[in-house]
TrEMBL record:
Residues reported in the UniProt entry to bind pyridoxal 5'-phosphate: G117, S118, D259, H324, T325
Subunit structure: Homodimer.
Participates in the substrate recognition with KAPA and in a stacking interaction with the adenine ring of SAM, annotated site positions: F20
Gene Ontology process terms (BP): biotin biosynthetic process
Name used for this protein in its record: Adenosylmethionine-8-amino-7-oxononanoate aminotransferase
Amino acid sequence: MSYTNKQLEQWDKEYVWHPFTQMKSYIQNNPLIIEKGKGSYLFDIEGKAYLDGYASLWVNVHGHSDPELNSALHEQIEKIAHSTLLGSANVPSILLAKKLAEITPGNLSKVFYSDTGSASVEIALKIAYQYWQNIDSQKYKHKKKFISLDEAYHGDTIGAVSVGGMDLFHRIFQPLLFERIAIPSPYTYRMNEIGNEEEVKQYCLKRLEELLQTESEHIAGLIIEPLVQGAAGMITQPHGFLKEVERLCRAYDVLLICDEVAVGFGRTGTLFACEQEQVVPDIMCMAKGITGGYMPLAATITSDKVYNAFLGNPEEHKTFYHGHTYTGNQLACSIAIKNIELIEQRELVKDIQIKAKAFSQYLSKLYELPIVGDIRQRGLMVGIEIVKNRKSKETFSVHEPIVNQIIMIARSKGLIIRELGPVITMMPVLAMKQEELQQMVDIVYQSIEEAISHYTSVQ
Ligand code: PMP
């Protein structure tokens, strides 16, 4: 099929409905159409290079078109692309499950595959609910609610949206959702009235404990993004917060679900974020980085305690009736095995820790700019909160879309990053070189400076 670049642009506007996108404004601009990738760079159809400061939506680990990952994919495709896990098994899904059981914390050992982060969350919620029903449906008949944090984001399917708390994304679907109970998120920067980080932590934990004291009989599970709430604008949790959440879940008989979809596979400086607080959830969700950004794959891993509750004779009806057509897909599982092997061989996690320190130094320079209110970082996960006034922390109004302008200026200078509300977010390719991280921060600095020059209202 032959086509011109102009035709591609036109067909994109005519036929593709983009996610999370107001299409009316999208079609007024020329789309950025990516054609190739190499290392930390993406290349558009005109051949222009961009640093991938967003790791192609937080997934890319070793860089684009990694020769070893490419060969792993070729090797597998010569054997088979897909067969089903319904009634049969396949080699890569067995080997990957064994590996995931080895590298995840504690006694997590039973892997349920799916294809997206949302599905891995959906599965975790269904397992948590059914777990209590399978153990004792009389005693636990009321356990059907979930707890999650304010501003929580766990995906876009209806179950995942039910445990979500982002008004902009989730409000419209409210009538379709099951009940969740929100607890405050420890968003220290915006909780002046509560106090410092430690006081904010204690405040949020107290709210959780009070809730559990009265409601635990109705709660099947608590779902949380460990260490950082990504989509909420990189809200970093105070040290010790997650550990206390775990303790409270245990004390009040509530299953703990850690959603490691965004933070897993090295992003925060350990292979899994919950390791940093020695937390072992009952259920853990993984996706994004699991295949290094190559194939859609997700996994929900549970402890033996959870899994064993699903064992029984057919008449006991304990089976987990859930499964997707591409569950355990061979291409995806084989690339995930290679991805993990390379993370280990290349000592990527250690490398991320070293780079994160340098990154933090580069980022601190951004405080020279008057509209940079807060910089939050864990590993290679960064949020820069933009404010109109540093003292009052007032944000720009919807009529002053400065954050989006910064993103677009950065793009024109060859860097792809994105905004989440008033926050500029950076999630670089995990193997990005130190000098590329520096370059990224330099571009962000220049872009903010340039955007400020258009605003007379900056104080
Ligand atoms: N959980 C978290 C924490 C996420 O950040 C995301 C996606 N950004 C999801 C779940 C959903 O993953 P997916 O987009 O693959 O469905």
